[in-house]
Amino acid sequence: MRHFTIHHDGVTIPVTRGGQGRPLVLCPGLNSTQADLHELAGLLRRDHDVVTFDLRGHGLASAADRYSFEAFLSDLAAVMAEPSTAPVLVGYSLGADLAMHFASEHPEAVAELVLIDGANPVPEPFITEAALPEFRAMWAEMATRQEAGRGTARQVLLTAQEILDLNLEIDVVRSRILDRYGRIDRPISMIMSTSMAGDSGEGRAPGFNRNWRAGIERLVRAQPHITTSWLDADHGLVFTHAPEIARIIRSTQGPSQDASAIL
Questions:
Q1: Could you give the 3-state DSSP secondary structure of residue 114?
Q2: Which domains can be identified in the chain, with CATH numbers?
Q3: What is the pLDDT confidence band of residue 221, given thresholds at 50, 70 and 90?
Q4: What is the largest CA-CA distance in the chain?
Q5: Which of 79, 135, 141, 204 is the most buried (most CB within 10 A)?
Q6: Phi, psi of 5 (to 5 degrees)
Q7: pLDDT tens-digit profile of 198-216?
Q8: Could you say which DSSP state residue 253 is in?
């Protein structure tokens, strides 16, 4: 295992590289770190040369004076300059959106895309005026819980307001993301959760889950070559279903797979 840092845009990005085989870059999402993705990374290292890293303000990366989609995208771009061969680019949640945007702008730098529960062209935004108070309270509670992780490899330095602002920005990004898929001539695999917002039949969860599935149905209609696998899980699938995700990533690196598997 190699551990090193990348300095760019006034921040320090910690990177870990190890394993053997085909190069693969694993991009975490908002409020997740490379330490959180340790199990998935370890499984992938059995047959990949895996690069993991922390986005600014996450894990062992330094804090920043700005947190935005473009700022996080610049972190990924700095890491993508490391592999000498175009890697499989795997992104989770926000990391999937970052991977999609990077690949649409630099298709020659990516061999294949695997997008885990993100980069979804949902037909409706998640954060509406009606839902805003619930989201604000949820992220305030999350930020309070995250204070216990300060100084560790799992710390998140963003405030509740910064998390809210980023999620509002992500809604806008996803409203425009469908066209970007048409710019990419590399294989694309989606690994999605069936119950992104949880399996409760009450409150807003059923509507959020329908919106999530509708986004992928919309994507596959526009880009029928995209491989889609559904896991019976919520948005934490990278933490709860790492072996299944690793197996799917291995299986999609070959002949085209059925695009409707529910696992």
A1: strand
A2: 2-262 (3.40.50.1820)
A3: very high
A4: 49
A5: 79
A6: -125, 150
A7: 999 999 999 999 999 999 9
A8: S
